[in-house]
Amino acid sequence: MDSTMKSVYDSVIARDPNQPEFHQAVEEVLDSLVPVIQAHPEYLQVVRAIVEAERIIQFRVPWYDDNGDFHVNRGFRIQFNSAIGPYKGGLRFHPSVNQSILKFLAFEQVFKNSLTGLPMGGGKGGSDFDPKGKSDGEVMRFCQSFMMELWRHIGADLDVPAGDIGVGGREIGYLFGMYKKLANEFTGVLTGKGRSYGGSLIRPQATGYGLVYFAREMLATKDKSFEGATVAISGSGNVAQFACEKVIDLGGKPVTLSDSSGFIHDPAGIDREKLAWIMDLKNNRRGRIKEFADHFDGVEYTASKPEPNLNGLWGVNVDIALPCATQNEINGEEAQMLVDNEVTAVAEGANMPCTPEAVECFQANGVLFAPGKASNAGGVATSGLEMSQNSLRMSWTREEVDQKLEAIMVNIHKNAFETAEKYGMPGNYVAGANIAGFLKVAEAMQAQGMV
Ligand code: NDP
Ligand code: 2IT
């Protein structure tokens, strides 16, 4: 990073010294933007504004559990940037949620949403509520209490939340119901809704499918493909499940999945039947991934070490790695293990799952590396398609949505690839995605007087 960018970065740290995840996300983007500012010095002012959230909302979420005991959680919505469209981004319910994590996610979302080519600004929100082990009734009362405050800050043309870790179809349903009751109107204010009340076909699949479409494009630049490739996937939630499905569709062999308790290694490969079993385990029975190893022969289960909690999975010998669980789940050492096993490509399904040391290790060793803000953009892109369908009061077929999703992912790949070349960093998708995502937002901010 040069001295100009370093001064922007130092001011970000000075303002919020205790936000390491946010600093990490900002540092990577500022690093990428050095050649842009050299070519367009006028954009330095934009950079100084783009690292500051437009608005941060924090609120109390009180709720009663099934025993009548009272709990208080903290709710947030970070409205980071609205230069190119309404704030758009998911809600995360996880005990680790704090302002640093949500600011990093909202910041990344600004560039990701820009890359989709759709008119969406960037936002993120959530709560330190832990849905694990809670009954449906408890989750419903929590969601209703959360929305009793959030509803006044969002709207179909203002801010459109969706799912993320711990927030899936069940939670979106409860949140939508309470929004509708309070606002007294039926609008497309959330995405990831159920099919019967305005949800889009393919939205549940979109992040995982999009990830694999992107990775396929990236592999093709080196005349490689998923056909016959062994694939390590982490996580076993929404993104991991549908990444697994699309890898199978393209002839690859997924051999791992995980949750926060541990990971499974199935050398024979996770086929459609096993994946259906896992989807039922995770989405209906809400069980642990260990049960997969208990149920199927020849599967090995390894419990997590406390920190880093996925340690071990990345030592499995694979051709392609798709981290789909959470931030900083592949550190420098784990990246080196993948490199030692001659991994061809790593594509981020999660947001920022690779530490800066891991990214550096992949790039230094010629591994194809796709940053999440490009490779996991299929989820929010399809949310954008859900917003369009809601505005039109129409719904498109599965094929129509999937074709649009695929076209968007191919285009994001092309844009990131060509932008990296243009700025003299061929094959560097991190730089390409950051620069391409930035330029559209920067132009809009400048045209609008950087309000
Ligand atoms: P889910 O809640 O559906 O699944 C998350 C999975 O990751 C679970 O298997 C969970 O295990 C595991 N996990 C979560 N936190 C940790 C942790 N701290 N350590 C180890 N394992 C963990 O979430 P999603 O699949 O929706 O999201 C996964 C990632 O993808 C996140 O980074 C999210 O931001 C990103 N993403 C999601 C999109 C979407 O459309 N849903 C779009 C783009 C990115 P356990 O159940 O034990 O907690
Ligand atoms: O990180 C993400 O892009 C998401 N969680 C999806 C956001 C959305 O609005 O669909």
Automatic annotation (TrEMBL):
One of its GO terms (biological process) is glutamate biosynthetic process. One of its GO terms (molecular function) is glutamate dehydrogenase (NADP+) activity. Residues 200-449 form the Glutamate/phenylalanine/leucine/valine/L-tryptophan dehydrogenase C-terminal domain. Keywords: Oxidoreductase. NCBIfam families: PRK09414.1 (NF006929). Homohexamer. Belongs to the Glu/Leu/Phe/Val dehydrogenases family. PANTHER family: NADP-SPECIFIC GLUTAMATE DEHYDROGENASE 1-RELATED (PTHR43571:SF1). This is Putative glutamate/leucine/phenylalanine/valine dehydrogenase.
